[in-house]
Amino acid sequence: MPDIILSNVQKSYGGSGPKAVSDLNLHIGDGEFMCLLGPSGCGKTTTLRMIAGLEHLTGGDIRIGEQVIDSPAQGKFVGPEKRGMGLVFQSYALWPHLTIERNTDFGLRLRKVPRAEREERVAKVMKALDIEKYRDRYPSQLSGGQQQRVALARMLAVNPQVLLLDEPLSNLDARLRLEMRAELKRIHAEFHTTIVFVTHDQWEAMTLATSIGVMNEGTLQQLGRPHDIYDRPANRFVAEFVGSPPINIIEMGGGHALDRAAQDWLRPRLGDAGQVGSVGLRPEALMLASSEGAVPQGSFAHMAEVTGILPTGGSWIIELKVEGRVIFLTTTACPTLTGGETVWLYARPTALHVFDKDGQRMGAADEALSRAEGGVQVVRKA
């Protein structure tokens, strides 16, 4: 299928309030697995429904290749049934009075596909999704995960060029969600279908997507590969939304000891630290030293008190306090610390995410800190 292109898309529901979607520009490549990620009410589901044709645009246009499928200015609108797309709802929307086999071939019957071809395609997708043994059961006799597989099979049977998924895993428990994530990855690899997946779960987006679009209040905050979204967040909202435990934020211009220490550390490295609004430190980028002498030279460091050690199975979350401010650190090495112990926390220059007073990432700061990283020297205890 040609690429799907959203240009300056607008969506409002009347009134003078904020737009549900504002000036959205999005390019979804053929065969791509794109996740629209963001909090409730950010416009991600509205965007999915506009792509599907269930919502009309207020402004802008949507194209599939060179064909305009929705444009208020041009007076064009292609109905959802003619877009070659399949939509899987959060609620699955299975017919309770039809068997699993009949639910799966429902779309093919509507399209009047010949019986032999219909049976072949249904058998293929049911086998691929491991639900063929349930073909004579009804939806009420299946678990949530099995019902999810049926909903996916029904869409895949009609061979849609684009598969649209609206938070389909949110009703499942943790184990089933993990299984279905792996299932979706396999489906994408096997069927080469373009997938647009809406979720508020950052780990679903990070583990599934080839690209992620982070949205907030109807606007696209950042579009990029999963590791780019995490390692180089475009602004403070993205940095704080993606990551668990969340990123540690140090506010500039404050009177707290950590604020002053960060500003003093940044000033000789950035030249003008007065433009900095805040600094972010990922929990896994923070490290601990038993004394100031064990901190690598050139690192940002500060004394802290250990106030909690939280095991999570394969890793530990260490809670620290600097004059009452809580800082979180994560490690995969079993800590030997005890509550109340005083340590030095530190981070290498490139571990700092620097944002200006508007919350936007400062590219010049990244370059300056990369140069500073080359001057870091490790000081080892005798």
| Major sheet attributes | 6 strands, mixed
Assign the CATH class of the largest domain.
Alpha Beta
Secondary-structure content class? alpha+beta
- The tally of helices reads 11
Q: Would you tell me the overall average pLDDT?
A: 89
Distance between the first and last residues' Cα: 64 Å
- CATH homologous superfamily descriptor of the largest domain: P-loop containing nucleotide triphosphate hydrolases
Enumerate the strands of the largest sheet in spatial order, edge to edge or round the barrel: 7-8-9-3-10-11
The assigned CATH architecture of the largest domain is: 3-Layer(aba) Sandwich
Percent of residues in beta strands:
25-35%
Uncertain ranges: 377-382
Radius of gyration in whole Å, from Cα?
A: 25 Å
Quantity of strands, as a count: 19
| SSE sequence, one letter per element | EEEHEEEEHHHHEHEHEEHHEHEEEEEEEH
Amount of helix: 25-40%
What CATH calls the topology of the largest domain is: Rossmann fold
What does the overall shape look like? globular
Key terms:
alpha+beta, Rossmann fold, OB fold (Dihydrolipoamide Acetyltransferase, E2P), 2 domains, five-stranded antiparallel sheet, 19 strands
Walk me through the topology.
Blueprint: E1 4-11, E2 21-28, E3 33-37, H1 44-52, E4 59-64, E5 67-71, E6 76-77, E7 85-88, H2 100-104, H3 106-110, H4 115-128, H5 144-157, E8 162-166, H6 174-191, E9 194-199, H7 202-208, E10 211-216, E11 219-224, H8 226-231, H9 236-241, E12 248-251, H10 257-270, E13 276-281, E14 287-289, E15 300-311, E16 316-322, E17 325-331, E18 342-347, E19 352-356, H11 363-373
